[in-house]
Design a protein that fits this description.
There is one protein chain. This protein is of the alpha/beta class and 435 residues long. The chain has two domains: 235 residues, Thiamin diphosphate (ThDP)-binding fold, Pyr/PP domains (Rossmann fold); 140 residues, Rossmann fold, CATH 3.40.50. Helices cover 31% and strands 18% of the residues. The protein has a seven-stranded mixed beta sheet, with helices on both faces. Strands 13-15-14-17-18 form a five-stranded mixed beta sheet, sandwiched between helices. A two-stranded antiparallel sheet has the order 1-2. Strand 14, helix 9 and strand 15 form a beta-alpha-beta unit. Helix 3 packs parallel to helix 8 and helix 10 crosses helix 11. The protein is globular. This is 3-methyl-2-oxobutanoate dehydrogenase (2-methylpropanoyl-transferring). It comes from Rhodotorula toruloides (Yeast).
């Protein structure tokens, strides 16, 4: 145990030093007629939030291996054994260490689905165009490998897909349904907020907890009203339904495997803009990441920022401009705030959310800002703000700041102005710190 603890601390320190080094030496360019190197703002492609080396991937917080030959929904006795990272896992791959592979988000989703189909003979994957690979190619080749009886297309009816999935899971199958776009999930609203509670309605006689609904969500830059929405807030009151939004390939695979095996129905929302833009080294073997636990991506003492999905990378860009404002922002960013210590938290599970991690952070920093793409009214930000105000009132130094999408239809021509960009976030940071 002591050796493992020392191993964990040593590797964690090494990983922290590597990430600190990478942050201290960002990519830079030299403008014409200038000898001064200007640091480039981070993007999803070079984000420090991504784990692009094998060592960092294996040290993902909360990662637990699932090496059993057969894994279904729920927790078996074998699953309770110690499944944390061990010294042997860190060996080079050629010496038997855990292998990783460079993947983007859609490849990580496909890897998770392949794992489920291979280890759970009762599992089925279905949805519109799924047997062809899906519109984003997340199920490419699975029908050829596992057969059309287990990976198959459905009619174009979201209501029918959800109802069919509830029926399958009630009869003992592990049902993984895909809604082609989250914007079209509303015809299935009744099934997901009412029928998915079958366990409670029937007094435990029936159970559809082995149902997982996957759906691409959020803005992509040109989706407009019916292909860019973030509908997670509509389901916050659907008691018994869990809601998950991953930020990266490692998170997508581990959280999806946990969602499918969780004994409760789960709505798994996949930010479509990250399908090909976010790339990490991802363990190729079976692993899970915990549902209901937020992750502290960056520790700080002056301000807490909570987000999930793509806005995390926008926050990272805003923090870069806070530290090193370009010529347009130079006069607008107070110098005494450029060394601000910010704690950044990825919520990951939208419901049930990890309020304990947020409260602990806010009690330390005294300030909170919440950022997401969905509209403000009745939102995740509103719920978190109310909870933090109730629990941390005497420790707050400023009102909780909510930076979200607007309470308007998602206009195609104005998509750029709808989303909370780095300038709005930067302005929100300054306003919160100057209160």
């Amino acid at each position: 145990m002591l050796a493992r603890t020392a191993l964990r601390r040593g590797a964690t320190l090494a990983g922290t030093q590597r990430r600190a080094l990478s942050r201290s030496a960002p990519h830079s360019y030299s403008p014409a007629n200038s000898k001064t190197a200007v640091a480039l703002p981070p993007t999803v492609a070079n984000s420090s939030l991504l784990r692009t080396s094998r060592d960092d991937a294996l040290w993902t917080p909360g990662l637990l291996w699932r090496d059993e030959e057969h894994v279904g929904v729920g927790r078996s006795e074998e699953a309770k054994r110690d499944r944390e990272l061990k010294e042997d896992d860190l060996r080079p791959e050629e010496e038997g260490g855990r292998p990783t592979e460079k993947m983007n988000v859609y490849q990580a989703i496909r890897s998770a689905l392949h794992t489920v189909l291979a280890k759970d003979s009762s599992s089925l994957v279905f949805g519109e165009d799924v047997s062809f690979g899906g519109v984003f190619r997340c199920t490419m080749g699975l029908a050829d490998q596992f057969g059309q009886e287990r990976v198959f297309n459905t009619p174009l009816t979201e209501q029918g897909i959800a109802g069919f999935g509830i029926g399958l899971s009630t009869m003992g199958h592990t049902a993984v349904a895909e809604m082609q776009f989250a914007d079209y999930i509303f015809p299935a609203f009744d099934q997901l907020v009412n029928d998915a509670k079958y366990r409670y309605r029937s007094g435990g006689m029936f159970n559809c907890g082995s149902l997982t609904i996957r759906s691409p969500c959020s803005a992509v830059g040109h989706g407009g009203l019916y292909h860019s929405q973030s509908p997670e807030a509509f389901f916050l009151q659907a008691s018994g339904l869990k809601i998950v939004v991953p930020r990266s390939p490692i998170q997508a695979k581990g959280l999806l495997l946990s969602a499918i095996r969780d004994p409760n129905p789960v709505l798994f929302l996949e930010p479509k803009i990250l399908y090909r833009s976010a790339v990490e080294q991802v363990p190729t073997t079976d692993y899970e990441l915990p549902l209901g636990q937020a992750e502290v991506l960056q520790e700080g003492k002056d301000l807490t920022i909570v987000s999930y999905g793509p806005p995390l990378y926008t926050v990272e860009t805003a923090l870069h401009h806070l530290r090193q404002p370009d010529e347009d922002l130079e006069k607008l960013v107070p110098r005494d705030l450029r060394g601000l210590s910010v704690e950044l938290i990825d919520l990951r599970t939208v419901m049930p959310y990890d309020i304990e991690t947020i409260v602990k952070s806010v009690n330390k920093t005294g300030r909170l800002m919440i950022v997401h793409e969905a509209p403000l009214a009745g939102s995740v930000a509103s719920e978190l703000a109310a909870e933090v105000q109730q629990r941390c009132f005497l420790r707050l130094e400023a009102p909780v700041k909510r930076l979200t999408g607007w309470d308007t239809p998602f206009g195609l021509a104005y998509e750029k102005f709808y989303l909370p960009d780095h300038v709005r976030i930067l302005d929100g940071i300054i306003e919160t710190m100057r209160y």
